[in-house]
Amino acid sequence: MAHAVTEAKPESPTSGAPKMSQRQVLEALSGLLLGMFVSILAGTVVSTSLPKIISDLKGDQTAYTWVVVATLLATTVTTPIWGKLADLFNRKLLIQLALAIFVVGSALAGFSQDTSMLIGFRVLQGVGAGGLTALSQVIMADIISPRERGKYMGIFGAIMAIGTVGGPLIGGLLTDSIGWRWNFYVGVPFAILAILLLQATLHLPKGARRKVSIDYLGAALIAAGVSVLLIWVSLAGQKGQFDWVSATSFWMVAAAAAALIAAVLVELKVKEPIIPLRLFKNRTFTFSVIASISVGVAMFGTSVFLGQYMQLARGATPTQSGLLTLPMIAGLLVSSVVIGQIISRTGKWKSYMVVGSILLIVGLALMGTIGYDTNFVVLSIYMFVLGSGVGMVMQNLVLIVQNVVSPSEMGAASASVTFFRSLGGTAGVSVLGSVLGTQVANHIADKSHELAEAITKLGPAGATIGKALQSGTIPNVSSLPESVRVIVESSYGQSVAFVFLVAVPLAVITLIAVCLLPNKKLGTKTTIERQYEEDAAASATGHAHSTGLIAAAAAELIDDADALIAGEPLEAAEAQARAGDGGEPQDGRVASIRSIEHR
């Protein structure tokens, strides 16, 4: 007797995934874009004004470096924490909170009376920046697939252009006309508008939420280890501090190493690590992290000291400095927008990132040849090449990681790549800042005879200038007499060029890592759609397993019924049931057999 069991067909894996129209995506992005604009504006508006700010607050090169490092360090440490929080709480509320923290820190920085206060408020600013950095990546992955993301790069490029290009110009104008403190206040009205716009426009589709725990111990150990290491790098060998080879250096390095080793051990054991070390089993993630570290050094480290070069080696005002750095920004924007569109249309990315890595190496090497009197046309070409390389590599490293990791690890993976990029930038600014300070001191020492002659000719005014230069504070170059200014400018020009050369080997590491990345084509599903697909697939597997069990039980019952109808005694059927099950017969099955016999 033939019997057929019909299996229910599960729904299509993505049938339940919510779809957003292009208009809905654009509406959702509007508040996010304004929030990013505020972040970019607040970060770039002070870039051309920092030499003036540090000079007014009587800070030295170490203070200059740490005003930048403080924000980057706080961003680095908090980015993965924000990524974890994104898996637990409302993402819209989180990004609004991050924006509020960011702007409060920025506004308070405007009231700073010395470099210590400024550094402290920049830490608060960095906490908010960590949230904006991590959450913007996660939210974008929620609503835009990797393949389609290039379509929106033009909009992002325009916003970045306004913030990146307008920031230094606005900062320079404010510093030259009203005062540098307004650099920190200018973003407040934009931030309030961004928070309101996010509330009105950002309606994220509901995705799966899993209960997570925050690894506060791991975060604290990472923060402690990285902070101590960076403090050691920035202070060792500096005038009035301690030597590279000294008892202080030994204890600081030992403490940093102990904290970082403990952090690794904690990350291996906790249920929800800040940086899931299992992600390093994925080749794409591992090589993206390596590339991110080195590109972070190149991007943050060199851009920070480019403003110093313009003002201290070329005698430019803050406003002029903003205008003179436009070629690098233009290269970054053009390459990121154009390549983003091409990647979106083709789904292929690797060849463009290899080219970008090569341009990064070439741009840094060319910038390593500059001096205080380099022709501006030549300098503009060098900066454009460097910016093009950064634009083609930086953001795509996050994109390709999001393309391969599980939706449940999207927040942690995106934040981790950004974490290591920020870590590279933080370490780069600290190390390169220390290198710059040492180089400037050495070059001025080499020209001490010329400097002494120039100062002597100035009389009493020269003695005051000499004391200021010996103190290590960053000078206001434009106010120096011509004879002294040329010496200072040439020293800073040579020193900044050396900083760019130091970054070249790191760019080579970026190229190697990019070449080793698996060349996987970009997907066409958003994170939410992929999550629905995974959940539906798991449900379908469970459904098939249950259906199979029911079908097997039904077949056994029918076979027993057939045997009973053929005249076999009930005891034989029960014995067969015991033999098949390895024990007592199932009550339901025997009851069914008895029912059939009775009938």
3D structure, described in words:
This protein has 599 residues and is mainly alpha-helical. The chain has two domains: 22-204 and 272-525, Growth Hormone, Chain: A; 533-598, no CATH class. The protein is built from 22 helices and no strands. The protein has helices at residues 22-44, 50-56, 61-86, 91-109, 115-143, 153-177, 182-185, 188-201, 216-235, 247-269, 283-313, 318-324, 326-346, 350-367, 376-402, 410-446, 448-457, 460-470, 482-515, 527-565, 570-581, 587-598. The two termini are 19 Å apart.
Q: What top-tier CATH class of the largest domain fits best?
A: Mainly Alpha
DSSP helix count? 22
CATH H-level superfamily title of the largest domain: MFS general substrate transporter like domains
Poorly predicted regions = 1-17, 570-575, 577-599
Essential attributes:
single chain, 599 residues, mainly alpha, Growth Hormone, Chain: A, 22 helices, 75% helix, disordered C terminus
Give the structure's gist in a few sentences:
With 599 residues, this protein is mainly α. The protein is built from 22 helices and no strands.
